[in-house]
Records
---
Amino acid sequence: MLSLNSKINQKVLNLLFLNEDKKFYVNEIAKKIKEDSSNVHKKLLELKKEGILSDQSKKKERYFFLNKEYPFFEEYKKIILQSFSPESKLKQDFEGLDGLESLYIFGSYVEQGKGDLQVLTVGSHSEEDVSKKLLALQEEMGVEITHARVVELDQEDPDLKEVFSKKHIQVF
């Protein structure tokens, strides 16, 4: 049975489920999730043995990717993306940030469950603090994150009307 107790397993699976059509080599994964490459390699081999990952060698690199034929693929995808999702990470990292009133996400992640994130923050918070946190999250998750900030939500603003007419998630 696949163990989700390991932080490295959680980070690896979150990265791969958010980028489920991509293949990553060991050092690339280690860098993105900020873990030691030998520990990551060990966990990748365990996940491959379990069957949720497959691998492929190209030249001198060994690439790992999700095995979509794994019997419990959809169940684990749902668990990982709900438990370690961008929403939960954003809420954890940003809730309580001085001056930040609310945070919304848009983009292909919201539309399709994978891909890039567009983040809208509302409030008088520090742009620098938000940018630093989003950059770290972008590196950890391996997804592109774009950001826009407004001081207050103006329901009559045509740009905001367009944004909110699309599928979105209010994180808080």
Note: The first helix runs from residue 7 to 18.
---
Amino acid sequence: MVVVWLRIRQLLQSQAYVGSNAKVSGYAKVSGYAKVSGYAKVSGYAKVSLVSGNAKVFEGNHEITPLQIHGTRNVLCFSGNDIITIGCEQHSIDYWLENYEKIGEANNYTNEQIEEYYYHLIYAHDWLTSRLSKVSEK
């Protein structure tokens, strides 16, 4: 137990900050001016410079550069595999396309915003489909 605490202390010695609800585990490193807050989780062999909110960082590499679309309300981003995150909602692209109206209404989006994000989701679906097919060809 002492060795684990010393390892964690060593990783956090710089100006890094880990909030009381955040979790850092495994061989993850939080250093420099990194900030891990909210209910963020960092695990595996992840190295962090900034994580906040409900973000989760796990080990592994993205085979493709993550997509980010800045809409009028929240950012839509590719979060790995076929997962898209908008605001605090994280679902597969298929789930988004089937449930975008309900999700938008539940999060108090206007009808115009729901329509806007639907078009962002269509683009994200096409982008994801084309990128994943190129990765699978390798």
Note: The chain has a mean pLDDT of 74.
---
Amino acid sequence: MSNIIHLNRTTGDVTLGQLTANGLLALDGDKVVSSVGTPTDGNVIVGDGSTWVAESGATARTSLGLGTTDSPQFTAVGVGIPVPLAKLDVVGTSRFGDSATNYTGISATGDVSFAGSAGFYPRVLDQTDEPAAGTGATQCDTGEAVIWTDTDDSKCYLCYNHGGTVKTVELG
């Protein structure tokens, strides 16, 4: 490749390694872009195995490994972690809500805070039997607090599963 820089002052095209400017930025040589055409909103530049090309829509999503639909599905998402250990794995402080006045925050130490109109609402069970320890829809999981309304007598209870034993306190 010769050492040529060409600028077309009329069109604004810049070319490196070519005698004429034939693209907005056209480069020749090993592993460099060679004219991908007119810049278009929504395009990405990808390699097709032999050259660089501009792609958009389903073609670009396929090239990037995101499938062809407008709503790609991910098995896991990591923020601040290269290999997520859960569906959503965030390392560091997180906020969910408007992030300014109404949000739930989770600190890097795991502390949960509520700001503004954000609140904590335990699960409510309306059923005849006291919730047993377990993970089912009518049970109370370890470390979970639930509000249980006994449908037989309409009394309301706070239930907490402490290490596999559900403790129940009647609410007045």
Note: Helices lie at 57-63.
